[in-house]
Amino acid sequence: MPRLEKEDLLKWFQAGEKPREKWKIGTEHEKFVFHKETFERVGFAGKSGISDLLNKLSHENNWEKILEKNNIIALKDETGASISLEPGGQLELSGTPLENLHQTCKETGKHLNMMKIAMKDLDLSMIGLGYDPKWSRSDQNWMPKGRYEIMRNHMPKVGKLGLDMMLRTCTIQVNLDYLNEKDMVQKFQISLALQSIATAIFANSPFIEGKQSGYLSSRAMVWTDTDPYRTGVPQIVFDDDFGYAKWLDYVLEVPMYFVYREGKYIDVAGRSFLDFMNGNLEGFKGQYPTIKDWEDHITVPFPEVRLKQYLEMRGADGGPWNIICALPALWVGLLYDPQSQQEAYDLARPFMNSKILEEGRISAAKFALGGNINNVSIHDIALEMLRISSDGLKRRNKLDSRGIDERQFLDPLFNIVNNNKTGAEILLEKYNKSWNAKIDNIFIEDAF
Q1: What is the pLDDT of residues 116-150, one digit of tens each?
Q2: What are the beta bridge partners of residue 131?
Q3: How does pLDDT run across 237-266, given as a tens digit for each residue?
Q4: How many CB atoms lie within 10 A of CB 440?
Q5: What would the pLDDT profile of 338-362 be if each residue is shown by its tens digit?
Q6: Residue of 286, 313, 326, 297 lying closest to 423 (CA atoms)
Q7: Which of 436, 434, 337, 344 minimizes the C-alpha distance to 386?
Q8: 264 has which bridge partners?
Q9: Which of 170, 205, 250, 308 is buried most deeply by CB count within 10 Å?
């Protein structure tokens, strides 16, 4: 293969640029699947396993099966949507890139209904939380995907909680477009500086192994001790000269996990993609990466916001149906209207420092809206974020069939912030009162 040069990779990021009228919204959400009778997480094989569920979904909905070593590991449909497996059997919908939030929420509802129908005969159910509320790491079932085996072996070498991140967490994510490099930089800086505020608003994981964890987002806490070489808040994003080139240098410094060849994942965990580009990767001497190798590598950095050929917002816990619709609404309102984007930048500017934000991540994980960033109340920042987002959605003026605009999807977030009570705190109230500290009730009352 010809050598892959840095200039090729810079052009790859540039290829993500889109005119405003072509900007789309891509929403991803993960859910825990469990057996209704025992509340246990679902393994891959066996009766009513994940394999059975995916085969049933494929048969009933005509979704194409994706196989790895004859195991069904994902589904995709003709629109570009896919259902994939996280390491512990969490199911993720990666939605179709859509034009407005009405379409996004309709897609979410259609997906959840499809899942309910398929799971009914298998006596399975799903729940939207940021962290598995009951089962230990050793109780989990690993999915048969080659890249997960490599990560499983590598994670304990670089952090204490990486396996918990893989097995016991769920998130909601939105992917958004950028106009050009300048627009990408501002969007990246805004969303990275405000990501902990989203973590606080969406906090929905106060339990670990049936007990109160001491955090309102146990998911966010786990990410702070997963892998320092590929997670957190890269300071370079706030540098005056930040752009595609600096981000590229950051990604090239992130250690590799694997090289995919002839249907197999080959373990190169901890090695350098730069060495690969120079033909010096151990085990691949004289070989150079393809653009597909690069597209694999761009998935292995895990900062709070990630740039591919779009920007990914990665800070929110999994949650119920209305919360899934609310996460993209928050960021679309902030970043897809020019006036709101500038106001959001002004709001975020005082926090554009990685040290401040790393401290803010811990505060948001532990206290959610009760936390602080740089001695400023997270609750107060959240309220202003929602105001700016709501105004942005109003100016977008995307109406549904009833003539109602996209602001309706922010209603659950206004309820959270105005009442100063996150999903996690509502769960804790129930746990300590009506549930009598019996965590099994969560699978009955809060399942989809």
Answers
A1: 999 999 999 999 999 999 999 999 999 999 999 99
A2: 169
A3: 999 999 999 999 999 999 999 999 999 999
A4: 13
A5: 999 999 999 999 999 999 999 999 9
A6: 326
A7: 344
A8: 261
A9: 205
Tokens representing 51 are: 């394999």
Q: Is the dihedral of CA 87, 91, 96, 98 positive or negative?
A: negative
Q: How is the chain split into domains, by residue range?
A: 6-254+301-445
Token representation of residue 343: 């106001």
Q: How far is CA 346 from CA 61, 70, 339, 411, in A?
A: 46, 52, 11, 24
Rounded distance between C-alpha atoms, residue 50 and residue 63, angstroms: 15
Question: In 133-159, which positions are buried (b, 16+ CB within 10 angstroms) versus exposed (e)?
Answer: bbbeeeebbbbbbbbbbbbeebbeebb
Task: Write the DSSP assignment of 153-174 as a string of letters.
Answer: HHGGGT-SSHHHHHHHB-EEEE
Q: Long-range CB contacts (< 8 A, 24+ apart) of 54-61?
A: 54/83, 56/118, 56/121, 56/122, 57/83, 57/114, 57/115, 57/118, 60/114, 60/117, 60/118, 61/114
Other CB atoms within a 10 A radius of the CB of residue 64 amount to: 11
CATH code for the structural domain at 6-254+301-445: 3.30.590.20
